[in-house]
Each structure stands twice: as structure tokens, then as C-alpha cells.
Design brief:
The structure is a single chain. With 234 residues, the chain is an alpha/beta fold. It has a 5-stranded parallel β-sheet, sandwiched between helices. A 4-stranded antiparallel β-sheet has the order 6-7-8-9, with helices on one face. The two termini are 33 Å apart. The longest helix is centred in the middle third of the chain and has 15 residues, at 111-125. The chain contains 9 helices and 12 strands. A hairpin with a 2-residue loop joins strand 8 and strand 9. The protein binds calcium ion. Calcium ion binds at residues 12-13, 55, 57-58.
């Protein structure tokens, strides 16, 4: 059960936005369209997407300004940005990347090229969505088969705990605040309270048994998934 990646399309030309949205939907993505920076911001405030397709030429704030703004914002700074540009020249591409875009794609582009770029940025920025098996310490998780093993022995982890575990393991040795976990794991900070994160983490630890010690509480900050505690005991 892979999460359907949500793609925010920020594009003022409705014909282009619609074409992109149809193609994304056909290929297993959930597209959302915003026609300018303000409506894109409202979307971002409500639900954090997995990737942003950002048109360069927009009415009001330009794509470049928006990319800079979202990169500087703690809530949005980890969301991959793919710039859509009609300019093919180097200085613009460099400016886009300098502003914090992960990649750019020049109009007109083929659907296949767009999909390949989206998948590439998703793989780079959110490895837990690439569906690849991940190992930390003696713990192994395979998103394709939903299997978790601890030193080769199967561990029973329910679907609710599997999601945060997948995220933790894809981003080990890093402190995650509760609000970051809400955004990145559940994708919508509006409907889940922060203390729900604690409940899920508690259940995850219980499900993991001995390996549960890898989920550390970082006082006043959040949680960290670490192989260090497991290594100490081994
Ligand atoms: Ca435009």
C-alpha cells in the first residue's frame, strides 16, 4: 500500500494545468491545481504536497519568488520543487536552482519527461515513497511487501505504525518535531493533533519490541530514529 503522491501544480494557464493534471492522475498521482501564489499558499497551509510543480511566469509573485519563500519556510522547505519554465537559457535555470528548486523542466515537455523528473525528485527527497527496502541497524523494512524484520526475524507491524516507521527509517539519525512528523507522515496537520503522534510512536515502539529502543524521544524537540542504541546493546 503506497501513499498516492500529492502534486501541487502552480500554473496560471488552465489548459496546461489541466493537461498536466490529467496525465498525473492517469499515472498514479493526486494533482491539485493553484492558479497563482496566493491560492498555492492556501493549499500549502491546508495540506502539504509531496512535490510542487511551479510555473516560472505567474501573475503576482513569480515562481522564483515563491520558490525562495517556500524554501525559507520551515513548513515547506523539504517539499521538492520542480520549476516549469518557458525560458531555455542557462541564467534562468541557474536562478531557479539558486532559489531552491530541485530541478526544472522546459516547456514544451513530454508527459514521460515530466513523470520521470517527478519520480526522480521524489526518490531524492522522500526515499520512503520510492518503495525501496531500507535497513537501519538490524531492522529491515520492505514497503513493497509490508514486511519488517529484526535481525532476520519477522516483526508484526500494523498499517498505522508502518507509515511512521517507514518515514523514520528513511530519515534516520535526525530529530523530527511532532509537527514535521504530522506533515511528512500523515500529510495533513489540520486533522490530527500533535499528541496523536505520541500515541502512534508509543504503539510503534510496542510493536517493534526490542527494536523499539531505536525510536528515541528527544526532550523538547521530538523523535529520532537511531541505530546507535541498538549497536550499544549488540
Ligand atoms: Ca505561466
Amino acid at each position: 500500500m503506497k501513499k498516492i503522491p500529492r502534486v501541487l501544480i502552480v500554473e496560471d494557464e488552465s489548459a496546461i494545468a489541466e493537461l498536466i493534471a490529467v496525465n498525473l492522475r492517469h499515472n498514479g498521482f493526486a494533482p491539485v491545481w493553484a492558479e497563482d501564489g496566493d491560492s498555492a499558499q492556501r493549499e500549502l497551509d491546508a495540506v502539504l504536497p509531496d512535490v510542487i510543480l511551479l510555473d516560472w511566469m505567474l501573475p503576482g509573485q513569480s515562481g522564483l519568488t515563491l520558490a525562495r519563500k517556500w524554501r525559507a519556510d520551515a513548513r515547506t522547505k523539504a517539499v521538492p520543487i520542480l520549476m516549469l519554465t518557458a525560458h531555455g537559457d542557462e541564467p534562468d535555470k541557474v536562478a531557479g536552482l539558486d532559489a531552491g528548486a530541485d530541478d526544472y523542466i522546459t516547456k514544451p515537455f513530454s508527459t514521460q519527461e515530466l513523470l520521470a523528473r517527478i519520480r526522480a525528485v521524489l526518490r531524492r527527497r522522500t526515499p520512503e515513497q520510492a518503495g525501496e527496502s531500507v535497513t537501519v541497524g538490524g531492522l529491515q523494512l520492505d514497503p513493497a511487501t509490508y514486511r519488517v524484520t529484526w535481525h532476520g526475524s519477522p516483526v508484526k507491524v500494523g498499517p498505522t505504525e508502518f507509515k511512521p516507521l517507514n518515514y523514520f527509517m528513511a530519515h534516520p539519525e535526525r530529530v523530527h518535531s511532532r509537527s514535521q512528523l504530522l506533515d511528512r507522515v500523515w500529510g495533513d496537520h489540520v486533522f490530527i493533533e500533535e499528541r496523536t503522534v505520541d500515541v502512534h510512536v508509543k504503539r510503534l515502539r510496542e510493536a517493534l519490541g526490542e527494536a523499539g529502543a531505536m525510536v528515541e524521544t528527544v526532550r523538547g524537540a521530538g523523535y529520532r530514529f537511531t541505530a546507535a542504541s541498538a549497536l550499544l546493546r549488540a
